[in-house]
Amino acid sequence: MIPPMRFIPFAEQTGFIREITPWVLEDVIQQAAQWQRSGMDIVTSVNLSTHDLLNHDLVTQVQALLKDSGLPASQLCLEITESALMDEPELALKHLDELAAHGIKLSIDDYGTGQASLAYVKTLPVNELKIDRAFITEIDATPKNAAIVRSTILLCRELGLSVVAEGAETTAELAWLSNNGCDVVQGYGVAKPMPLPNFLVWVQDFNRIV
């Protein structure tokens, strides 16, 4: 396995991300459509880079892929980082508005480590904030992290946004997040990355448990 941080920065620097993202979007949307037809209710997320968000063909490409696959727009979530919003904010916001208008879910990834202010966040047509793992690690034993995450959860409640905690790995972290009203948890405490066949078995087992 090759972690994203090993190749994504290089792909962005060289511009090759423009080749990777369309392939990923097509593959993910086709796969998600198969899951949806088989009765699996899974919202699948895809990360977008700054290059992707500012691509004038982005909205048209995503629309075409959804139409060809038959996947409902609400079953796709596109994740963007705070820094991706800063380069050309007007164009980025235009594309986000267009995607949201088509019913596609939008998420701010790694929230808290970038440059987006709360005043800016409230103008974005996003559905969720993903709190960066830097604030989640040892949250049960770090009062400052706990205060930041707790206030972010309350903020999202007021703005009507879902909250996702990234990088939760321990039982204590999961318990704290559950007790403080976090909507979704992502991290090794839930499951590690796995091949597709293993993932399908894991989902079935998880659904039986809950």
Portion in helices:
40-55%
By DSSP (H or I, 4+ residues per run), the number of helices equals 10
| Unreliable segments of 5+ consecutive residues | none
For the termini, the CA-CA separation is 30 Å
Largest sheet, described in full? 6 strands, parallel
Note the beta-strand portion.
5-15%
Please explain how this structure is put together.
The structure is a single chain. Helix 2 runs parallel beside helix 4. The chain has helices at residues 4-14, 17-37, 50-53, 58-69, 89-101, 118-121, 133-136, 143-159, 171-179, 196-209, and strands at 44-48, 76-81, 105-111, 128-131, 162-166, 184-186. The protein starts with a helix and ends with a helix. The mean pLDDT is 91. The chain is 52% helix and 14% strand. The protein has 210 residues and is α/β, with parallel strands linked by helices. It is globular. Helix 9 (171-179) links the parallel strand 5 (162-166) and strand 6 (184-186). It has a six-stranded parallel sheet with strand order 1-2-3-4-5-6. It has ten helices and six strands.
Quick description:
The chain is α/β, with parallel strands linked by helices and 210 residues long. The protein contains ten helices and six strands; from the N terminus they run ααβααβαβαβααβαβα.
Primary descriptors:
single chain; six-stranded parallel beta sheet; 52% helix
How is the topology of this model organized?
Layout (H helix, E strand, L loop, with lengths): L3 H11 L2 H21 L6 E5 L1 H4 L4 H12 L6 E6 L7 H13 L3 E7 L6 H4 L6 E4 L1 H4 L6 H17 L2 E5 L4 H9 L4 E3 L9 H14 L1
Parallel strand pairs: 1-2, 2-3, 3-4, 4-5, 5-6
Helix pairs in contact: 2-4
